[in-house]
Amino acid sequence: MKLTLRIWRQTNASDKGRMVEYKLDDISPDASFLEMLDVLNEQLIAADEEPVAFDHDCREGICGMCSLVINGTPHGPERNTTTCQLHMRKFKDGEVIDVEPWRARAFPVIKDLVVDRSPLDDMIQSGGYISAPTGTAPEAHSVPVPKPDADRAFEAAECIGCGACVAACPNGSAALFLGAKVTALGLMPQGQPERWDRVVSMLDTHDDAGFGGCTLTGECTVACPKGIPLDVISRLNSDYLKATAGGKKK
Ligand code: SF4
Ligand code: FES
């Protein structure tokens, strides 16, 4: 495949940044998007030019590190697919492809396509955990969990913390990420003791980090590579209202 890439290059956080065009020949349609960028970087290094910085780790769709806006869409054109699992056969021979970093006020660019997503970690640190000592694993049948709750919690727990929801949101909100965490923990018996403090603390951290408010446009769930459903945000809002109104009922 022949490709024209227009890639966002930015030296550091204070650099203005710009799109730079690169031509690639002979890219295998079976290459992943990141492997295609590896080929570009090998060529840049061979030409004594600065390679393009981009985030990645597992390349298996599980770590949440890959984070590219491809032709205007976080993680590119294939639904429920991370950038690292996207393959070049999804593009046309000769296509012009724009590659940009996540764009959100809370995610400043560090270099080229790499942004600082530590505000997501800050939210986890402020409440996205269960602190009760669990000891050895209890006998599974001693803590019954209704099947619909278990299924819903499992679905929410699939969030890999990539931040595509934030990049897709016109308000730069992390409500889908937050809703996924609050739902996954709040539906489990082990998550009950901290349920109300968790939602208040995580939402406060969300707002302090500069994420915007959710207006339920739904772009987040479309961009989410794990298909986290929009209704986790309803649960987030419901828990927050109950926590702050003092009702604290299920
Ligand atoms: S909700 Fe989806 S898009 Fe948002 S961080 Fe989790 S996996 Fe990524
Ligand atoms: S590199 Fe781990 S999910 Fe893409």
From TrEMBL:
Cofactor or coenzyme needed: [2Fe-2S] cluster; [3Fe-4S] cluster
Gene3D superfamilies xrefs: 3.10.20.30, Alpha-helical ferredoxin
Coiled coil: none
Cited Pfam families: Fer2_3, Fer4_8
The protein's name: Succinate dehydrogenase/fumarate reductase iron-sulfur subunit
The keyword Iron is annotated on this UniProt entry: yes
Residue ranges occupied by any 2Fe-2S ferredoxin-type domain in the UniProt entry: 1-103
Keywords: Iron, Iron-sulfur, Metal-binding
Domain 4Fe-4S ferredoxin-type: 150-179
Family membership noted in the UniProt record: Belongs to the succinate dehydrogenase/fumarate reductase iron-sulfur protein family.
